[in-house]
Amino acid sequence: MRKIIIDTDTASDDAVAIMMALRSKELSIKAITVVAGNVPLDLAVKNALISVEKADTYDVPVYRGAQKPLFRDLVTAEWAHGENGMGDVNLPSPSKKVEPENAVDAILEIVSNNPHEIELIAIGPLTNIALAINKDIETMKKLKVIYLMGGNGLGVGNVTEYAEFNYYVDAHAAKIVSDLGIKIIQLPWDTCLDGVYIKDGDIDRLNNINNSLGKFSVDINAGLIALSKKNYNTNGFVLCDAGIIAIAIDPSIAIEYHNASCNIIDEDNEYYGQQIIESTGSKNYDICTKMSYQKFIDLLVELLS
After folding, report:
1. pTM for the predicted model, two decimal places
2. Cα(214)–Cα(135) distance, integer angstroms
3. Who contacts 61 (Cβ-Cβ below 8 Å, separation ≥6)?
4. Structural domains in the chain, sorted by start
5. Are strands 237-238 and 197-198 parallel, antiparallel or unpaired?
6. Do residues 277 and 186 touch, judged by C-beta distance below 8 A?
7. Exposed, middle or buried: residue 78 (CB in 10 Å: 0-12, 13-18, 19+)?
8. 174-208: pLDDT as tens digits
């Protein structure tokens, strides 16, 4: 089976992504490493532990990572995911415990022990990954591939006109990861708006799954549903992080890619966090520009059933 590390700032869409990954027969999750982003680190760790327990498959170690970006103060997104990051659903404390080892050391150890076999799926700010690169770049060059949800891709951002949330939280880290040279399969924000926006009728499909996971996945995304109603007057929610997990499981879900060399703006100005398509350099980015929503939602329902 394929060996996977998931790096997450666990909030509502991350939780669905983690459950999908753990319930897939294609992937073997070797570790979940947690970074501050959507919510502060302690809360993100708690949500990751809850997500592993809710998946109800196999145990996987969860590691605590960076509690702030490399050089800036932390920006969080409780306004989108709720104060607890999980739609303000009242959730029991997890019985599972976080590992004592730091996330950065865990990443390096796992990659070192499995050279050119580890596929890293990053669904939060890239601080942990950048710290691992800074600590031991030669080991990190032994990653097989990096899947990531983040960046503005070929479109506009969702925090500023120029920057998507994960890249905006820590653009310095995003630049370090982008410059590593490892193949990056990217699901950017602009593609998510069509590709993984859960529509009204499919909310019903999730709620009607004959176990608790479908309804749980809807309930914890109450903040995103409220945001969609407020901003677009539509009943639905966008599951960005679940989208990149789906592409990793079934590559045919990604219909079109743009192969590119990218630069990330990390200067402290209005363009901070912007992903720029370069005309020269190593084209290590495969930017997903179109995906099959139908295949995505069918896979989501199948894995949660």
Report:
1. 0.98
2. 40
3. 31, 32, 99, 106
4. 2-304 (3.90.245.10)
5. antiparallel
6. no
7. middle
8. 999 999 999 999 999 999 999 999 998 999 999 99
